[in-house]
Write a structure and sequence with these properties.
heteropentamer, A alpha/beta (243), B mainly alpha (276), C alpha/beta (375), D mainly alpha (331), E alpha/beta (234), C: alpha/beta, seven-stranded mixed sheet, 39% helix, E: 234 residues, Rossmann fold, 2 domains, six-stranded mixed sheet, four-stranded antiparallel sheet, 11 helices, globular, binds adenosine-5'-triphosphate, binds magnesium ion
Chain lengths: 243, 276, 375, 331, 234
């Protein structure tokens, strides 16, 4: 459903993405890995319209979306979270989510139903007991879950998750893996996720892509990617022992 | 004219870019220095440039005092920019009317032995006061730029206001640094005010006029960008200069504002990337 | 009227720009008014009643001048309204005075204000832009044609005062055979006067009209000195009439021609007294123009009251329209617009003194012409 | 709970409106009518400004332009079409639309700028309009325009204008109230917080901003039209006075930006206090006290006067998007 | 050398820390683990002087430092790598590192330390002139750790330094932490990578709901069934 070909993005002299191709099928959970600074977040920014790529074509359900403004892309059904979380600081959690609901793709345009819907989403992300506090008072992981709730609020077809597992311990990761599956199964949302936590990648993804210096170095099922020598050298490290 | 507005504007830019304080009273402080220069010139014949030695420290301490007791309470506000604007608007009103009480509303002019000297280079005429203003402004800009970019305290200033917590964690005394910054900003306004007084007549109300121009200079140059403000000052000066030469004078001010508008629209971040 | 004598004082209300842009001038007007009141009260008041002021500060904002005029009229129920300053405020207050039927003696600004059909407004005396250079041109006209300047540069600030001052220039210049080589307007604030002077110099103009306020006037003059531009005459509109001109510019301020509607050396009753007061109180050689205005407007108003023997505004108006008033600017009788006959004094600053040089009968010093070189 | 509090607000407003509406007919001195008229005008201006400045966070320093444009549109229509004075009040409605149209045109490029850059570009815009009119003689030029006032007693004229301004003010407050609880307002607040994030939430930020800007220009345009008629003498120095721009911003923020009542409270307080001060105290001291007022209030209520009432709001903030939440903690 | 005693910290009504006690001895590498929201960051910030405590004691080399301002605590040699990095995003990488060495004591060794930092993170040498805010997440984390090293800490407190790092980088960071400890720097490490943390740590505390629920040598905790159950997911 989401397809990109030949995407190149430069920052001054730095080539952040170099002729990257990717494809995500409906109802898939696809992982995106790669060393720090390899261009993963940049790719998400390009997809969601925050950056304009120098070249390449992105299509969503067959329709080209590159060059469209971010709100149109969001409107078409591509939701996202931010790696460096960006909650609307002066609004409570439920308000954060309710605004996204109202502007989202379901037909909720008034406040009351939006708040109700927001409340459900917060429950889904286990934030319901904090619905009325401001995001400034949240611990980091809660903020990440808020990002997820807000992205889901606009009823996307596909959600781009940027490192929402970061900072969880092994036990908590299990909970998050479950959440990812529920996002797909209960909401019917396709997931495209950036992650460094290999356990999460291995546990959820049907397919994994790896970037290195803006170049795609691997793409395939999790096992083969994890055993790809290029990936091990650039990303996992020799000492990687299936943590 | 440009460079002088730049000198006046730097401090404004500094407290805005670095501390998120829009100091509406900035020009009023500059005006106080101008009045001091005037008084010292009249009373003891002190050269206005030397008067800076008196007014700059004076303003520095006054500003530290104001920072400590008036600005500190509002640094906790949701939007410091907004709150600071209201607060300093109040300060500006008070200063203006104190000046009215002390110096009366009569307009003043700084007249020195070199006021009416001129240097002619080809088709260009440079009046001495303008040159003096230019030199002083360049020096001021240089000093402040040097301070921010190359001294540790200057870097700490920038750091402190980007990430106050982290700066503290690395040993920056936030309160002191902010106070110094604000003090410096206002003190530079003093130097700028004296330069302005070389060029223009002034009365207690004049600061609001200066304020609008320095607002322009600062934004066009990029908030928090010292060199930007200086260049923007020059650019505005050149625009006025050139259009004065080629257009009916009536349209000069309009053209200046119109061009600034266009520049801003074309370069949404100001002419120069904002920094700090 | 013994019954009156026991009465409450006559209250005179209105607003002046005591703070803000126009504060400098307004303070002098206020002083003039107060001096008048002290003098009147010492003599037992008007109609046997003492006078008293309510002066609001309109912060140099014409909008506020309007509300304060209404406040004075309807809340304080003042007996008399005093005149306003500057021109824009006076213009905005005139319709209010008209609607409330209050006599309003002010500077008025210029002819257009008096062409709106207001019957209660008087320029007594007015600061009439259209008449400003009348005296100067009369003086020029009396000069042998070959001695007159030949080429004029005219720079005018783009506001009502500038517009009115320059409105009669073209006609006069033509009549005198002076070519108007440059005729430019500029908006305030004037960023830099150097280009103006460079141009005047390049075009070989020998008379410079600088129709501006103080700030731009000073810049123009300084640029002229810096570039050693030596016209035969420099004529200034408003900028040179305030005391700061002489005080701040010293020698450089000399030899400027200008106009006026009243003058401290005029031989009309009252001027000596005012000068003596000013000298004693402020150490100035003669009273400043705006001090005189404040005083003269009150004189006009009070003569109207005394003439009508009543505080009835319509009676005062009618009396003023049909009788002659004697104030420090001379005798004046008002036409249906509320204006006296054109006033045409010309002044020149000589040795730091504002001297009257035209009409010839009132001349206090010989004009310096052509202008000597800069010192 | 929400609907009952809604009904209460509605009832109180109607009552207040009626009380105000009959005010000028009691034969009180005209000054009070004029003073309230001015208060209404500033409430209208500050409330309208709040749409773009308070909710969307785009500090426009050029709002006086819309006021002035409204005034000039009305005046020119009256002169050009030889409208009888009574039509003038109605002609303030097209004046509002002209202001709105111009806001859309200049808003399009200007709203791409953020923060201070937007503030300055609007400031420049106001100067450009001001100077443009000053330089064009067909628009009155440096002389200004005189309007005819009808042959009615001053009390009646003032009362009519009072009612017109009152209605304008009520409409602008209603718009603000609606905004505060609508999807529109919520979108604006998201834009204020983080425009990029708002866009990824499918909020069409460019369009919303233009809408807010245009709406925020409409009522100032109307107010300008009515004011033109109140003053009968229009000059750029009066209706494009930069001080109005600054005052509007200060009033809104002083009361509390992004709230419905903040700009109202700010405008009422500042107008009345300033007027009162000039009455009782020597000019310079009056101004100094006025200055101290700003300092005093902002030190104790750094987020505006509305903060004072926030205790109650905190409880409610969960169920309504209407008002701001609490202090931002260190992020 | 650092002793925390019965520390209690509140955010308005929320009791984030309810009587925490722990001790860090010279040259140790002490780990602090706990699920999310347990109060780990709060504890570090309190020690660093960013947050006031309601009651309790923090003593450093025997002297109480509770109530000191953050910069004063920094002068004592207690340096934190804050959660979320908190870089000076509009300054260059190089300037960020210099800011780490802001205190005169550290400034004297600036060249030497810079060399060390670039040895550890060669990538930062490349990016020296880039604005820190435009770095990728992982690169930013490197800058944050590097900045702390520049301060010549005696006690280095790291708040989830491996957050958002590629596995190879995370391993490197742990290696760096171990190295620094070997060079004699005392370390207090918060991390969610419990297994890895406990393998390099000497001693560990478990924080839950604002209380220390378990402590012991790292080896000891690794074998504890409760840890296995709730942190290692085994
Ligand atoms: N706005 C920008 N300006 C300049 N360079 C940028 C910008 N954004 C990203 N970069 C550079 O592009 C490269 C890719 O960054 P990106 O954020 O996509 O990395 P990433 O793969 O998401 O890394 P991480 O896993 O650490 O988050 C980095 O080297 C970064 O410094
Ligand atoms: N500024 C704040 N205001 C109010 N509550 C806060 C604030 N910061 C943190 N909290 C709350 O205090 C509790 C402890 O937070 P803390 O950040 O110390 O946890 P943590 O152990 O570091 O968790 P994490 O693993 O998520 O980093 C959490 O419930 C959090 O919501
Ligand atoms: Mg990333
Ligand atoms: Mg934490």
């Amino acid at each position: 459903m989401l397809k990109g070909t030949n995407i190149t993005k430069r920052f001054g002299g730095l080539v952040a993405l170099s002729e990257v191709d990717f494809e995500v099928q409906r109802k898939e959970i696809v992982g995106l890995i790669g060393p720090n600074g390899s261009g993963k977040t940049t790719l998400f920014n390009v997809i969601s319209g925050l950056f304009k790529p120098e070249s390449g074509q992105i299509t969503f359900e067959g329709a080209p979306i590159n060059g469209l403004p971010p709100h149109k892309i969001a409107r078409m059904g591509i939701g996202r979270t931010f790696q460096i979380v960006r909650p609307l600081m002066d609004l409570s959690l439920i308000q954060n989510v309710a605004i996204a609901v109202m502007y989202g793709r379901q037909d909720i345009n008034t406040l009351q139903p939006a708040l109700e819907r927001a409340s459900e989403l917060l429950k889904f992300t286990s934030l319901n007991d904090k619905a009325h506090i401001l995001p400034g008072q949240l611990a980091l992981e809660d903020r990440k879950r808020l990002e997820v709730a807000r992205a889901l609020a606009s009823k996307p077809e596909i959600i781009l998750l940027d490192e929402v597992f970061a900072g969880l311990n092994q036990k908590e990761i299990e909970g998050a893996i479950e959440l990812t599956f529920r996002i797909r199964d209960e909401f019917g949302v396709t997931v495209f996720m950036i992650e460094h936590v290999m356990k999460a990648i291995m546990g959820t993804c049907s397919r994994v892509m790896a970037l290195h210096n803006g170049i795609k170095i691997a793409d395939g099922d999790p096992e083969s990617v994890a055993n790809d020598p290029k990936v091990i050298r650039a990303y996992l490290g020799a000492g990687y022992a299936g943590r | 004219m440009g460079s002088v507005y730049a000198l006046l504007g730097i401090g404004f830019s500094l407290s805005w870019g670095v501390m998120k304080v829009i100091n509406i009273s900035h020009a009023a402080f500059g005006l106080i220095a101008a009045f001091l220069a005037y008084t010292l010139l009249q009373a003891w014949g002190l050269d206005p440039i030397l008067s800076i030695a008196v007014s700059v420290p004076l303003l520095f301490f006054a500003a530290c005092f104001i920072y400590r007791f008036l600005i500190t309470p509002i640094t906790q506000a949701k939007e410091v920019i907004v709150s600071s604007m209201i607060l300093t608007f109040g300060i500006a009103i008070i200063l203006e009317n104190l000046m009215l009480l002390i110096w009366s509303p009569d307009p003043r002019v700084l007249t020195t032995s070199y006021t009416s000297k001129v240097i002619i280079v080809g088709p260009f005429y440079f009046q001495y006061p303008r040159l003096a203003g230019f030199l002083m402004a360049s020096m001021g800009v240089g000093i402040i730029q040097f301070f921010l970019k190359l001294t540790y305290t200057g870097k700490a200033v920038r750091a402190a206001w980007q990430q106050p917590d982290a700066a503290q964690l690395y040993g920056v005394n936030l309160k002191r640094i902010s106070m110094i910054t604000f003090g410096l900003a206002v003190a530079s306004a003093g130097a700028g005010g004296v330069c302005m007084a070389y060029l223009y007549s002034f009365e207690p109300h004049t600061h609001s006029l200066w304020l609008i121009y320095l607002f322009l200079v600062v934004i066009v140059g990029g908030v928090g960008n010292v060199l930007g403000a200086a260049s923007a000052g020059l650019i505005i000066g050149v625009i006025t200069g050139l259009s004065l030469a080629f257009l009916p004078y009536q349209w000069v001010n309009l053209l200046t504002f119109g061009l600034l508008m266009i520049i801003l629209i074309l370069r949404p971040q100001g002419l120069f990337q904002s920094e700090v | 009227h013994p019954a009156y004598a026991e009465d409450k004082p006559i209250v005179i209300g209105g607003s002046l720009p005591l703070t803000g842009k126009f504060a400098e001038t307004a303070k002098w007007i206020e002083k003039g008014m107060k001096f008048w009141a002290d003098e009147v009260n010492a003599k037992g008041g008007i109609l046997g009643r003492k006078v008293e002021f309510i002066i609001y500060d309109d912060e140099s904002d014409a909008k506020k001048a309007v509300t304060f005029a209404e406040k004075a009229i309807t809340v304080d129920k003042v007996d008399l309204l005093f005149g306003g300053y500057p021109g824009t405020a006076a213009r905005a207050v005139m319709p209010v005075a008209e609607k409330h039927k209050y006599v309003y003696v002010s500077m008025g600004g210029h002819m257009k204000s008096f062409q709106q059909g207001y019957t209660y407004s008087f320029g007594g005396p007015p600061l009439m832009g259209e008449w400003w250079y009348e005296g100067f041109f009369q003086y020029m006209k009396a000069m042998p044609a070959d001695q007159r300047p030949k080429r004029a540069a005219v720079y005018t600030m783009n506001n009502p005062i500038g517009a009115s001052a320059s409105s009669t220039l073209a006609g006069w210049l033509q009549k005198l055979g002076i070519e108007m080589v440059i005729n430019e307007k500029y908006n305030l604030p004037l960023p830099d006067a150097t280009p103006l002077i460079v141009k005047s110099k390049q075009m070989n103009t020998d008379i410079l009209f600088s129709n501006g306020f103080f700030a731009d006037g000073v810049m123009t003059l300084r640029a002229a000195k810096a570039l050693d531009y030596r016209p035969k005459v420099i004529v200034q509109a408003i900028g040179s009439v305030i005391p700061a001109w002489v005080k701040e510019l010293g020698k450089d301020g000399d030899y400027i021609f200008s106009g006026t509607a009243l003058h401290n050396k005029l031989n009309y009753p009252g001027n000596d007294k005012l000068n003596a007061y000013i000298k004693k109180k402020f150490g100035l050689p003669g009273y400043p123009v705006y001090f005189g205005f404040g005083y003269a407007w009150m004189q006009t108003l009070s003569q109207g009251v005394e003439g009508a023997k009543s505080l009835d505004q319509t009676k005062i108006r009618d009396w003023l329209k049909s009788n002659t008033v004697n104030n420090i600017a001379g005798p004046m009788s008002f036409d249906e617009k509320g204006l006296p006959a054109p006033i045409n004094f010309c002044t020149q600053i000589i040795n730091g003194q504002v001297e009257l040089i035209w009409p010839k009968e009132v001349r206090t010093a010989e004009p310096v012409y052509p202008r000597p070189a800069w010192k | 709970m929400v609907s009952s509090s809604n009904r209460l607000v509605f009832g109180v407003s109607i009552l207040l409106f009626l009380c105000l509406a009959i005010f000028p007919w009691f034969g009180l001195p005209v000054y009070f009518v004029s003073l309230l008229f001015t208060v209404f005008m500033f409430v209208t201006l500050a409330t309208s400004w709040n749409l773009i400045g308070g909710y969307a966070g785009y500090l426009s320093f050029g709002h006086v332009a819309f006021f002035g444009i409204g005034a000039y549109t009305t005046a020119l229509m009256m002169k050009g079409l030889h409208l009888s004075p009574f039509w003038t009040i109605l002609s303030s409605i097209p004046a509002g639309f002209v202001a709105m149209l111009i806001a859309m045109i200049v808003g399009y490029p200007c709203l791409r700028l953020r923060g201070p850059y937007f503030a300055v570009v609007t400031l420049c815009f106001a100067f450009v309009v001001d100077l443009g009119i000053k330089n064009l003689d067909i628009l009155g030029g440096p002389e200004g325009l005189w309007l005819k006032s009808p042959d009615l007693p001053i009390e009646t004229i003032r009362a009519i204008l009072f009612e017109a301004m009152l209605v304008t003010m009520m409409l602008s407050i209603m718009l603000a109230y609606w905004t505060s609880r609508s999807k529109f307002g919520a979108g604006l607040r998201a834009i204020k917080e983080d425009e990029e994030v708002a866009q990824t939430m499918a909020i069409n930020a460019p369009r919303l901003k233009i809408q807010a800007f245009a709406l925020s220009a409409f009522f100032p345009g109307m107010a300008g039209g009515i004011y033109a008629y109140y003053l009968t003498y229009i000059h750029t120095d009066i209706v494009f006075d930069m001080m109005i721009s600054i005052l509007i911003v200060l009033m809104a923020l002083f009361g509390g930006g992004g709230t419905v009542m903040g700009p109202v409270i700010g405008a009422v307080l500042l107008t009345l206090i300033n007027e009162g001060l000039s009455t009782f105290v020597k000019a310079e001291f009056a101004r100094i006290i006025y200055g101290c007022l700003f300092i005093g209030v902002i030190i104790f209520l750094p987020n505006g006067i509305m903060e004072f009432f926030k205790k109650e709001h905190r409880v409610e903030s969960g169920i309504s998007l209407a008002e701001n939440g609490g202090n931002r903690s260190a992020a | 050398m650092l002793a925390v005693n019965d520390l209690e910290v509140h955010y308005q009504e929320l009791r984030a820390l309810r009587g925490v006690s722990l001790e860090v001895t010279q040259a140790d590498l002490v780990a602090l683990i706990g699920s999310n929201g347990a109060g780990k960051t709060t504890l570090l910030n309190t020690i660093s002087g960013l947050i006031p405590a309601v009651k309790g004691q923090v003593s450093w080399r025997g002297n109480s430092i509770l109530g000191f301002s953050a910069d004063a605590i920094c002068q004592e040699g207690i340096i934190q790598v804050p959660e979320g990095r908190k870089l000076f995003s509009k300054m260059t990488v190089g300037e960020n590192l210099e800011m780490g060495a802001y205190l005169p004591t550290a400034r004297a060794y600036i060249a030497e330390n810079l060399q060390m930092v670039f040895d550890i993170f060669p990538r930062l040498a490349e990016r020296r002139k880039q604005l820190a805010g435009s770095l990728s997440g992982g690169e930013q984390q490197m800058v944050a750790v590097a900045r702390a090293i520049m301060a010549r800490p005696q006690l280095l407190m790291l708040d989830e330094p491996s957050l958002g790092l590629a596995p190879v980088m995370a391993a490197d960071i742990f290696q760096v932490v171990e190295d620094l400890n070997q060079r004699g720097i005392t370390i207090l490490l918060i991390s969610q990578e419990v297994l890895h943390t406990l393998t390099i740590a000497t001693y560990a505390y478990v924080l839950e709901n604002g209380k220390v629920t378990l402590d012991g040598t790292a080896q000891h905790l690794l074998d504890d069934p409760r840890i296995k159950e709730s942190y290692l997911g085994l």
